Known about the structure:
Chain A is α/β, with parallel strands linked by helices.
Amino acid sequence: MRYLSLTTADRQAMLAAIGVSSIDALFADVPQAARLDGLLDLPKAQGELEVERALSAMAAKNLVAGSVPSFVGAGVYRHHVPAAVDHLIQRGEFLTSYTPYQPEVSQGTLQMLFEFQTQIALLTGMDVANASMYDGATACAEAVMMANRLTRRKKAILSGGLHSHYREVTRTHARFVGFQAKLAEPDPEAKEDLAAQIDANTSCVVVQNPGTFGQVRDYSALADACHKAGALLIIVVNEAVSLGAVKSPGAMGADIVAGEGQSFGNALNFGGPHLGLFATRERYVRQMPGRLVGETVDADGRRGWVLTLSTREQHIRREKATSNICTNSGLCALAASIHISLLGEAGLTRLAALNHAKATMLADRLAAVPGVSVVNDTFFNEFTLRLPKPAAAVVERLARKRILGGVPISRLHPGKSALRNLLLVTATEMTTEADIEAFATALTQVLS
Amino acid sequence: MRYLSLTTADRQAMLAAIGVSSIDALFADVPQAARLDGLLDLPKAQGELEVERALSAMAAKNLVAGSVPSFVGAGVYRHHVPAAVDHLIQRGEFLTSYTPYQPEVSQGTLQMLFEFQTQIALLTGMDVANASMYDGATACAEAVMMANRLTRRKKAILSGGLHSHYREVTRTHARFVGFQAKLAEPDPEAKEDLAAQIDANTSCVVVQNPGTFGQVRDYSALADACHKAGALLIIVVNEAVSLGAVKSPGAMGADIVAGEGQSFGNALNFGGPHLGLFATRERYVRQMPGRLVGETVDADGRRGWVLTLSTREQHIRREKATSNICTNSGLCALAASIHISLLGEAGLTRLAALNHAKATMLADRLAAVPGVSVVNDTFFNEFTLRLPKPAAAVVERLARKRILGGVPISRLHPGKSALRNLLLVTATEMTTEADIEAFATALTQVLS
Amino acid sequence: MSDWSQAVSQFRTDPKSGGATVSGNRGLQIEEALIFEQDAPGRTGVDLPEPPAVKSRLGGVTREGPIGLPGLSEPQVVRHYTRLSQKNYAIDTGLYPLGSCTMKHNPRLNERMARLAGFADIHPLQPVSTVPGALELMDQLAHWLKTLTGMAAVALSPGAGAHGELCGIMCIRAALEARGEKRTRVLVPESAHGTNPATAAACGFTVDAIPANADGRVDVAALKAKLGPDVAALMLTNPNTCGLFERDIREIADAVHAAGAFFYCDGANFNAIVGRVRPADLGIDVMHINLHKTFSTPHGGGGPGSGPVVLAESLAPFAPTPWVVHGAKGFELIERAQGDARGSIGRLKGNHGQMGMFVRALSFMMSHGADGLRQVAEDAVLNANYLLAGLKDELTPAFPGTCMHEVLFDDHFLKDTGVSTLDFAKAMIDEGYHPMTMYFPLVVHGALLMEPTESESRDSLDAFIAVLRALAKRAKAGDAEYFHGCPRLAPRRRLDETLAARKPVLRWHPPQPDRQAAE
Amino acid sequence: MSDWSQAVSQFRTDPKSGGATVSGNRGLQIEEALIFEQDAPGRTGVDLPEPPAVKSRLGGVTREGPIGLPGLSEPQVVRHYTRLSQKNYAIDTGLYPLGSCTMKHNPRLNERMARLAGFADIHPLQPVSTVPGALELMDQLAHWLKTLTGMAAVALSPGAGAHGELCGIMCIRAALEARGEKRTRVLVPESAHGTNPATAAACGFTVDAIPANADGRVDVAALKAKLGPDVAALMLTNPNTCGLFERDIREIADAVHAAGAFFYCDGANFNAIVGRVRPADLGIDVMHINLHKTFSTPHGGGGPGSGPVVLAESLAPFAPTPWVVHGAKGFELIERAQGDARGSIGRLKGNHGQMGMFVRALSFMMSHGADGLRQVAEDAVLNANYLLAGLKDELTPAFPGTCMHEVLFDDHFLKDTGVSTLDFAKAMIDEGYHPMTMYFPLVVHGALLMEPTESESRDSLDAFIAVLRALAKRAKAGDAEYFHGCPRLAPRRRLDETLAARKPVLRWHPPQPDRQAAE
Ligand SMILES: Cc1ncc(COP(=O)(O)O)c(C=O)c1O
Ligand SMILES: Cc1ncc(COP(=O)(O)O)c(C=O)c1O
């Protein structure tokens, strides 16, 4: 077996050195009734070639997004990732190391995370960011729980423009952790007035920008309203590229930013692993969940980095920790950080402008399809269409024409008839004019 | 431009530091008439996405060997390369370093090459091997020239079983370097008697094993005949995997082994880059071409490696060098060496056995196709078929059925009507029973 | 620049501290500034076409002023991260005996498989009809996990082990609620990983610690004494974090069940028993599996992981969505707590879980097969015991007898040497080894927990043993000063963690204008 | 094992020589045994199915006895090569100023493109009708090379620069033979790279050296004096290996042509002028291009390279096969010296050249475009001159004035310091820099030839200048002993090259039985 380094002769010699006669002796503590004598009913070992063939056959059954015109987004975006990113994250020293507990031999990961924290703080306009969460949805739930701790209140108001997965994950936590999650009605037109709903029990209001229907709003007034009521404003960003063009949550007065960083450096991966982002104000840092890297000096006075403020964390504080999170999304953070480093200020602002321009072109073209209208008054790179028919069936028919035509809102909010005909479509820098034309043509056919 | 590190501001400041007013001043030595003022008529800079799309479109026009049943060999073989190989050779420290001129900071490449030299020496049964040549064909020409130097004779006899590219490359050298290359008739049945052709001017006889028609022979008697006449025996191996099953050239008494190592660790790559192998007897080492790595110690007495015996080489000896070769195939040697390390004794012997078994199954099945016979009395993993029709047209028709049905001998030896109906087919560990069946069925159809 | 020496001043150190070079570099160990310190305005490592001119649809909600990201070229970025990587220890570079972390070899085949476009380039919200292969893969993975554990169901979506714990404890709470019970206490051994009590507390339970007995296992009597009608669950790690199999586990399970509670197992140490013991046969009701441990998906310097949770029949109805089920027309994806999944606790994570990790784990399982996985457990245990045998007379084993996949020492062997477990660990760094897990579990003094995994060869273990023995001898010989100064040969010497926590600097800030002028 | 310390004895060194650890390792710098020393019989890193039983068709010509290859697992192999890699300096890790080698950034996009199945997984002998995209790529590359050089034709097949030289000189000989001339001499400047005289000699020519003049260029008068009816060619590098443009090049070309000879240009330094000067406009008849220099295909620690040769009309008919031509039905491949190619010198290499390098080079060219390539030349020249400006008062430039893409110093600045060019270079290693090219070209004493390429940032150059200045100062301050001991911080200190050459050990040998016993 290619991954095992011991030979039969080694095993014999080692058992002898240990002073036992057989391997079974080392499993003597296992209750007799639980000992498996034979092999489980699973296939035997296979070579690389066989495994590669079997898995490739499975992969080949899926419609690869990059092989067709694709307009699917809704929190997961298909951007172009420079080849250098995947090359660098595969370096064994990054890929096969653990959480940087031993800073003297983990400066690579630590410096990278310090840079990542800074990049995220800059992008979100916040003071500090952590070293990552599992994904945007769990980061959102953690943000709400942090707001609960900070305000000692137990009611969160979740916008109708917040991604339904984020709402559901937060609701699951609410049920078991014990707080109230008030879910506003889905709000394609972004007209809700959440300020009016804030009361003395409200720990936080959670909005998403751009919203899950694509709308872009300035939440500065809501921030003021929250703060006046002693509540916090949490802004979720799940298309991180938008931060290159849209006013930052920090500039709007957000207290916590929870987000999804997949757009930078990470592939679609059928939804995971992705990259939870978490940023806040300096004064709240000791209630933050997750790992934090801080600057310090070594015994020779040289600058270096360590994991810090671990008194927030489970391995030190156990049941009093701010969160139970341990393993997070380090390598996804690395991928994102490399991508952001490659882009730089000039590249990111242009990337954002390009996304916006492509989406604008797409919106103009699709609005010209008979029976189709654009719901949004504003958007960044995705927007909602109103179709004359249920969107799910339309998308299904488009797929048969080898076009991935976006996300029917009914997939995110099933059973709401008012939303049935809504379709969320996305454009990125990957979208070509030919893609747009193919989509418009196919949509015209499907709708006629 | 993403690959350029200077900004416009940098350029200005640097010109100032240099003390010139414009970049043109640094090109002042260029004759006026040769200065290009504008840009050449070529496309402008493009981003990764655009370049990727354009090249992918070109690549998509080719029929990928791995996507269809493929039986093409003739010196270039489609073996399974473990994923670890390509991962490791892409490490920047290997990929982006130069020839290891500074041994203190090149021990990685040097130790690897020392191991490679040892692996090749072991596989070929020779005393020493060099650090690589461009490919098998050029290694063959260099071997002949080395034999000429050693024997001070100027006539080489090239077997009819030697790959036609190797024969042609040697002949080109013969014309311009000034020696005689006697090319025996192509010899599908491996019946030629080269010993009879050796005379007092003969510096060497060059045979290939397995031969280009797939035949396997023991050349021990020929080695004796050569040595009796004061000539050298050069054995070419271009399916290096065969060395896991077939008697080694060293055991047959070869004086020089020239070969192709692509089978280990290297992709088809449409024919290049591949990996020239070169091995010989210890007593001839000072007439070897190419780089050699040798063991030594450092100032602290620690074992280490350096490039050595460079007094053979162009950078020291200039016009008296044994060869003009400088850059060779270092990274291909690394890929091969990693693959051989992964295989080890047990893996390589099994790989060779598997190739032989698959070829045997293929031969038995194809021999059952009406009108088809196997020419070979012996073979390792490829053999020659006699068809009832010209092979080139048959292969063309098979390709239209999406089967790569081998190499028509007429492609290697055009214009020889006796060879027109011969087809060289190859099996490796990649060949499945389904592939064999598909081939046999398609061949039956094409021939009927 | 008039004074060139400024160009390298950042990293220069006092010559006497080993930094005897002008550059601060030491041969191939090269210092590297922050990306923010390498900025040139306007420079970029990505070329994008000029965006077509369009009328903005942002509604005026546009960013004001620069973001502050630095501009670097691609060559600079590649060099930056290459250099950073070279400051890390990794499995690929050496033995990584971090106990409880199962730092085994990460096959490159798995990386290749996870990057197949049919897995990596599919969108979680593209029509389910276009991704049958993805659902098949998830179903296959579930089948392997259920067969290996003997459990009825598996929830794939948790993002890592701790997230799996949350999932498991939530399912237990949902089951209790379904029974109409409100139990408040969760029992957790003192030796447990920090995530266990943190999880229980996060779900609103009171954590009740149970002590270990003298041989490093749960004190069954103490446990039984704590059981009662308000106990929701026991969270037990098995083999436990002392590297010992809880030999009374079935008795424990029976007692827990008799008290009406659930038995949660922390499966972080599943590597010790995979293929030899099915957790279901031990009476376990629910267990998370760290795919990034037993099934070798790379740790990546801190994730991503994946923490599927296997569940007994009694808890299966509560598993979080999404579920992959076998429908009439092939695989189906239930995304909401309705229909068959109406009992589900609902969604715990965006989308469908860590697909990229699923592919790697399945590739690992298929490569090993039933036979290879059993051998994994045996070799992991054998290697740990070989370490124990090689070290037991020089170091002090925490408990008598053999161990499972990891071996625990305490710091008795360092008594009166002036050398602490930490000092000893830092000396290992100079010797080219990553230290073991230290000061965990909390049940022994100055713990040293070593887990070699099945990946290590005997030669590798022999060398490691030789080094640790030599270090132990050196400590006992009174050379404490040497240890206090370690590491001396790593990219950095000991770092001041107190300073970092006292005056947190959690991000880079542009130099202050006045400081700039002074420089 | 009774004495564990044997397990690490191989690498232990005398503590006083900096090897103060038991293992011989120094933190992340880890010693690594040869693969042959890590053998365990039967172990393998590749799992293959049992071969079906068949009757052997080898005719009894089977291998006798074992090959002697060691058995390692995949984890061991991955770690072995990872560790070895860490003992290398590379562009990815730092400035690599090796003059004449053009060590520029190697974009990873190019690696990805070369691995597209449509390029990497096609066979050179599959029907030409199935590879139109491959021929298109070769044709595109040819188009770029011809346009950039202004030449009529290009031969793609040579495997590297020296192979390209062979190709060019053979074409010249063929052209002379076609004219019925037998010329015997080739003129080569003293400063030429060793491959130039070696090539000329290999093709049966007498090599006649032409001296340099005081400003580092060809002595035109001396050249003219050597020209005559027996001269076949001049081989000239331009810009030359002193980093200078041969400003009399057109006069030289005219003189060569007037004598009936051909003008071969060594194009290794094309990076200095690409996009700003077309070699054809200088009167050059034939030139090789190292794709692994100007067009950035990675050097890979010694290849593979690719050395296409551009040819003027007069030499084009002699270009080696294969030729890619535009036929009636698209691209065609002429593999033999017949038909249109009847004048061809024939085949120089197996198959069709270094396809993998063609893809990378074309990707590089397309990425830069006409504009970017011109900027490459300008930035390469600017960077070299910036080094010159920063160093000229501390080191001694070999020639007055500005330079092209590389800058040459001699060792005058080290006069009477007891420090040689070599010592100086080894001190650079400790500072984290790869040394420049040394003692080449031969025309100046103790040459130091530095080529920063366009990839380096100004910050990087500033730091490099600062370090070299500090080292030069240190040498002049009389600290020769320091230099003689360098490097001290690299994986190895100075290696004994004399020993290596005197008693060549060119391969590993199994330990002798008696030695084994003694160990
Ligand atoms: C025993 C134990 N439980 C739980 C965990 C937490 O797992 P994760 O880091 O995947 O969240 C760990 C991880 O180290 C562990 O060792
Ligand atoms: C000036 C010059 N000519 C020729 C060569 C030989 O090129 P190659 O190594 O590609 O064969 C080199 C390589 O260093 C060179 O610098």
